[in-house]
Each structure stands twice: as C-alpha cells, then as structure tokens.
Amino acid sequence: MAKYRQGRINDEMQKEVSAALRNVKDPRVSNAFITVTAVQVTPDLKYAKVYYSFLQGDAKAVATGLKAAAGFIRHHLATTLNLRITPELSFYKDESVAYGAHIAKLIEGLTFTDDAPAAEDSANAEPAAPASEENKA
Length: 137
Known about the structure:
It contains six helices and three strands; from the N terminus they run H-H-E-E-H-E-H-H-H. The protein is flat, with a radius of gyration of 26 Å. Helix 1 packs across helix 3. The termini are far apart. With 137 residues, the protein is of the alpha+beta class.
C-alpha cells in the first residue's frame, strides 16, 4: 500500500474516532474530555493504535472506558469508512503533551547572562583581509 494512502487512512480514522467518542455514553469516557492525537494503522489494516490525551478523570478509568467502548467505536468506523477490513483498536495514552509542557517549563526556568565584553570584542574587531592568490600558495 502506498504511504500516502496509509496517511490518509490514519487521518480519516482520527476524525471518525473523535466523532465516535462524542457519542459514547460511558461517563468514564464522556466526562474526560478525550482528544485523539494520532492514529496509526498497520499496512494490512487489521490493527490500529489510537493515541489519546484527556483533561479530567483517572488514567486507569479512562483507559478502561475506552477499552469497553472499542466495539462501539469500531462499529461506527465500519459504517462511516469504506474499508474492506475494520481495524481492531488499541488505545495508548499520548505522553507527548506532558513531555512538551515539561520541556517548556525547563526552558522557562533558564536564566541567561549578558556576556557584554565578548560581544563588544567581536563587534569592534576589524574584518580580516581577504586572502590573495599570493597568500594561498
């Protein structure tokens, strides 16, 4: 399968899984404000990894709710997407948002010093004379 086709399927799956999550009635899922950050489908379209992040709730409860709702979401995918095989879904918590916040906090905590003498020396220095052909030999 061509790479661009797999990328398009990943994007469509992400949109449809997000739409299906809005219709899930399980309070563990509906109250958690879940965002689907990425979907990776295997080349044979049998399995899909769904990466998600959430704002509220317990991580274990949200994971259990998503696992319980996987059949409903898969049925929604089967009815909306025109694929020969509807992939089995597995859900993974996306840690990239927390990692990005951690890196931003580290960058914010950095202190910069003003190295004025080093900057003045390089600014006032005369440019080097261009190399002539006599000096190259």
